[in-house]
Amino acid sequence: MAVLSYNEILSKSIINYNGEPYEVLSAHIFRMQQRKPVNQTKLRHLISGKVTEISFHQNETVTEADIGRMQANYLYTNRGESWFAEKGNPKNRFSFPEEVVHDKIQWVVPNSEVEILTYEEKPMTVKIPVKVDLEVKEAPPAVKGNTVTGGNKLATLSTGAKVNVPLFINPGDVVRINTDSGEYTERVEKA
What is the pTM of this model? Predict the structure, then answer.
């Protein structure tokens, strides 16, 4: 395992911290007068999803987490569990608590492929693309007179997720969603 010094702890890397796997969300190295530089980071615990802020000092090192990747199919979510099956090995089924993966799974249609990050051979978390294209299932009709402001309305997507979309979006349209922010970015296909 690679040992990272304090200034090599960069965003997007996955590290062991206190014996647990964390994803580095952001890292900012700064130097205060008369003091040694510090790397201020935001870390997300790979299993619980909790975010903590940690400052690493010049003499501190961490090891890179030994993360594997597995392709899997998202099956369904039921009774608080989201279930997956390893691609090419459907007998290998596993689940995550729904509240841990909800912010990602809400953008995934059942039976579609996702990437699973594994830590010490155990499935840890779901990795999905930053942009996904989903069909609009329900969208209220635009109200006359409301179009001047370029307002938004709440639409329901094929996965059940709800998102604000421009008034010109109709059921059957395919829209692109930024899964990091949970926001509509553009219409990909018109119904």
Answer: 0.75
CATH number given to 67-127: 2.40.50.140
Assigned fold of 131-189: OB fold (Dihydrolipoamide Acetyltransferase, E2P) (2.40.50)
Give CA–CA dist 145/126, Å, rounded. 43
Residue with tokens 């990602």: 104
Q: Which fold has domain 3-64?
A: SH3 type barrels. (2.30.30)
* Coil, strand or helix at 191: coil
Residue 54 backbone phi and psi in degrees, to 5: -130, 135
Q: Given pLDDT bands bounded at 50, 70 and 90, which one contains residue 158? A: very high
Both structure tokens of 73 = 């199919």
Q: Answer yes or no: are the C-beta atoms of 116 and 105 closer than 8 Å.
A: no
Confidence of residue 148 (pLDDT cuts 50, 70, 90): low
Three-state secondary-structure class, residue 34: coil
